[in-house]
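Hey,

Quick one before I head out. I ran the complex with calcium ion overnight. Inputs first:
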Amino acid sequence: MDERRIAARFTGFDQDGNGYIDREDFYAAAKALLAEFGATARCDKGQALFAGAEAFWQGMAGIADVDGDQRVTRGEFVTGAVKRLRDSPERFAEIARPFLRGAIEVADPEGPGIGADAARRALRVLGVEERSAAAAVAALDADGDGRIAEEELVRGFAAYFTVPE
Ligand code: CA
Ligand code: CA
């Protein structure tokens, strides 16, 4: 994966843009999703999403926070996360799954899975540009039925971070 793509992935995680990935970034993502879809942090879905955010952060830190300072720098992300995640994308999928499941529940409670419109809104609120969000949703909804199943989302998410295009 080239430098530019790695930088884009890093920026995706660094939600508050302060130059490193930490727990706050995952919590910021959960908060943004709750605000966008009109759910509260205290409701069951809100709590599930925050639990997923915490698990995602712990998983990321376990893989990439080499010096254990509770921050993942760009350097740690490049050498640690990207390389190791590429070796085992299924591990990354499992780390991300509780958060993604929580996001689906918040964004599209009707289910099953998440509708294409809700998925686009979720990506936009997480800072993904309109065109990239639309392209990602189109790719995830491979059969074009307008919905993305949890499994498709988890696999697509892992592939985005682990597979060089
Ligand atoms: Ca950050
Ligand atoms: Ca660190």
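The first helix runs from residue 3 to 13.

Talk tomorrow,
K.
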